[in-house]
Amino acid sequence: MIIGAQKAGTTSLKNYLAEHPDIGVHITEELAYFQSENEYSKGFDTSFKRSYLKQNAKVIVAKNAGLYERELYLSRLSGHNKDCKIVFIIRNPVDRAFSSYLMEKREGFIDFDSKKLVDIISSDDPYDKNYFRKFLGLGLYSIHLQNILAHFPKENVHIFTFEELKSDAQQVCSKIFEILNIDPTIYINANKVYNKRKHIRSKRLARILNRLKQEENPLKRVSKKIIPYRWFLKLSKRIQSINYTKEETQREVLSDDVRMQLIEFYKPYNLKLSKMIGRELSDWNKVRN
Fold it and tell me: Which SUPFAM superfamilies does the protein's record reference (predicted)?
């Protein structure tokens, strides 16, 4: 189970792993079962039959980039299969936060300057607390790892960095294949780019489409009863693609001042994480890598 981190290449990793003939993955972008109350109430078999094409695959791989956020989700996964292999991709938390901020801004959910990423650290405003959770909290990996290890044995928790995945996806996948006891020599097409950044024509339409994708959305529930689920997915992806242009947007740059303040915020958490996993993470404390 790929449980995160959000904005750390989890979609690419899931698709790379899917190239192995012994692996079956879900047709949805995320497996919502452990997060969605509606999905969870129906039982795993219902979700599995609807989400997987290769139901007799030797190994089943699932991905939900926000699963590590709440103990409830981890508890549900552990209750389902405590022996499952956990893959956790970690990314420089400042870069992860900024990438998440850019995505939300690009799709029209927020419209504030990146300087606010610093302001929300000490803010008591309810909206800012939500922004903290979404942008900064997901990068507090030491806290999240403690929660993960409370539910799964250490030997089943495998941590990779976004930088490793980006520089040598083949090696990362081969290691995971070994962990899963399947042929590690299978070649994957690491040149293919997933989740490529594109310009959005209408932010309003993007917001509507994103809400429609949520499992709890009543319209989505009704639609899935009227048309086959796979048709629904193809239709929603097609509509979403129409709202994108082919050109990448010009990327906003995080100022050195804001980056430095965020680095200072994350430093103690990064240090604790480094000790927990026995890996050097000092590059995360640099203003420019």
Answer: P-loop containing nucleoside triphosphate hydrolases
